[in-house]
Amino acid sequence: MLIRSRRLRATAAIRNLVAETDLSARNLIQGHFVQPQEGTTEIGALPGIARNGIQATLRQVETDLKLGIRTMLIFGVPDREDKSPEAKAAFDASGIVPKTVKALKDAFGQDLVIMTDVCLCAYTDTGHCGVNHGATILNDESVAILAKMAVAHAEAGADMLAPSDMMDGRIQAMRVALDAAGFEDRGILSYAIKHAGAYYGPFREAADSSPKFGDRRSYQMDPRNAREGLKDALLDVAEGADALMVKPALPNLDLIWRLREQTLCPIAAYHTSSEFSTVKAAARLGWVDEPNLFREHLTAIRRAGADWIVTYAAREALEKKWI
What we know:
Blueprint: H1 12-18, E1 28-34, E2 40-42, E3 50-52, H2 54-67, E4 71-76, H3 96-108, E5 113-118, E6 132-133, E7 136-137, H4 139-156, E8 160-163, H5 170-180, E9 187-194, H6 201-207, H7 227-239, E10 243-247, H8 253-262, E11 267-271, H9 273-284, H10 290-304, E12 308-311, H11 314-319
Parallel strand pairs: 1-3, 1-4, 1-12, 4-5, 5-8, 8-9, 9-10, 10-11, 11-12
Antiparallel strand pairs: 2-3, 6-7
């Protein structure tokens, strides 16, 4: 007897009936770059994405909510004169991220889930994710600042803190600091597996966070290693992380899958700036089918086991009904 698998592919209705992976607005997290200046600054390397002042961010989020996007991840882009060796602006209660979070909560309340990036790269004068002594990025000194930053964001109303720095021990330090400040109810989404490499170029333009010397390989993970990433992810859970992030997404579908089998925590994956921008660039040249390629990217990430996807394509995918 011939086994005919095509019976379950015969029509769109049947294909939808037997589909194993779903993808909807609730799975998507839209990234936002916020700047102190009002108005909008276009980001050349991220077509359709901009740095926005507070009022422009409020208008954009109102539009996003109508599309069904309920979750956002905020990246602060402070003025260059506010960058310093000690990254003091990172935990300034009157800084751009706390001010934006307060405005968003005042405007939208519980309709919106606000996540904030907790990292020092946009706030140090070196562009590194921690403070430095010469060419060395200092771990424990950086962790102390990151914990203050997490509390400042929580005080402003952030629902979940998302540390992307990759310093050792930062999850435990943030959990202790948040609890001590009365924010036991605020979650931590740890960038648990974040590989060093070439996937972040457009983001660094957007956030003005390119390192001024060296690279980030002494603290971000080696993409050749899988067990190391899984070990650190499970360690983050033990330290108090509520959810885990894998970044970049497409090169690490195997790690998303393996992590899904080892933890019950929600798993997020970061569809990075280069994963987004390369599709945009190829589409501009007529080389790829942009809607279908983005759909296949996001579906593959979901199929691997990610519950949430941080992607710059979220707004456009919903607006143009690509998913």
